[in-house]
Design goal:
Elements: H1 3-10, H2 14-22, H3 44-53, H4 59-68, H5 75-83, H6 96-104, H7 112-122, H8 126-140, H9 148-160, H10 165-176, H11 178-186, H12 192-207, H13 214-221
Helix pairs in contact: 1-2
């Protein structure tokens, strides 16, 4: 039975059914809470230590202690923070967007703290370790070289041998436009300026969509 049919019969969104189908174990379906950084985060260690020493310590007393340390937030924020158990976490929550940015940024452009976070992230599980390795080896291909076409095929073969479904989808996309990808990785010239002009033209067109014709669009493009 196809995933779309499963989605209709179960009354669930197609993306939800795909996520369930891709999970190797039930534990992989669980999602961690997406907490945002708060004013209480700098005092997590103090709160965890005090709760370990005296589990029944009043929250009002904890509020007074961290305010002496510089806390400027409200009491409701502290109540919610403790009730959610966030003081028990050793590290602050790392959002998917921030984790992606750490993995995709060149290592020399990261701060010392960001590098340490990236290293912990890369060692979190075998899948992330494999993904970090693939990202690093693919980034090396972005510097044009004559032998990059052979190295690209080696990278695609290695990526397909790993159990990363999203990377497999990426390799299929490379196959569909392999000639253009090979040219981008082997030739020093590119059409970046042309694409930039196209993007700017589309932006100008969308800004006046439904309110102007070709004549105004032409006048807006020429002065630019």
């Amino acid at each position: 039975m196809g995933l779309l049919d499963c989605s209709r019969r179960l009354g669930l969104a197609l993306n939800t059914v795909k996520r369930y189908a891709r999970a190797e174990t039930p534990e992989r379906i669980q999602r961690v809470p997406k907490y945002r950084p708060t004013l209480v985060d700098p005092y997590r260690d103090h709160l965890r230590t005090r709760r370990a020493e005296d589990p029944g310590v009043p929250i009002t007393q904890l509020l007074g202690e961290i305010r002496e340390l510089g806390y400027q937030g409200s009491s409701n924020l502290l109540y919610r923070y403790l009730n959610q158990g966030r003081h028990l976490d050793d590290q602050t929550h790392l959002s998917p967007c921030r984790a992606t940015r750490l993995l995709l940024t060149e290592p020399q452009n990261l701060t010392t703290e960001q590098t340490a976070t990236r290293d912990r992230l890369a060692a979190a599980c075998p899948e992330i370790t494999e993904l970090a390795t693939l990202i690093g080896s693919f980034a090396a291909l972005l510097k044009p070289a004559d032998d990059n076409d052979d190295r690209l095929w080696e990278w695609i073969t290695r990526a397909r041998a790993m159990g990363l479904s999203h990377v497999h989808s990426f390799t299929r996309g490379l196959d569909q436009d392999l000639a253009a990808v090979t040219a981008a990785l082997t030739l020093t010239h590119h059409n970046g300026r042309t694409e930039g002009v196209n993007t700017k033209t589309k932006m100008l067109k969308r800004q006046t969509y439904g309110r102007a014709g070709f004549k105004l669009l032409r006048h807006r493009i020429l002065p630019a």
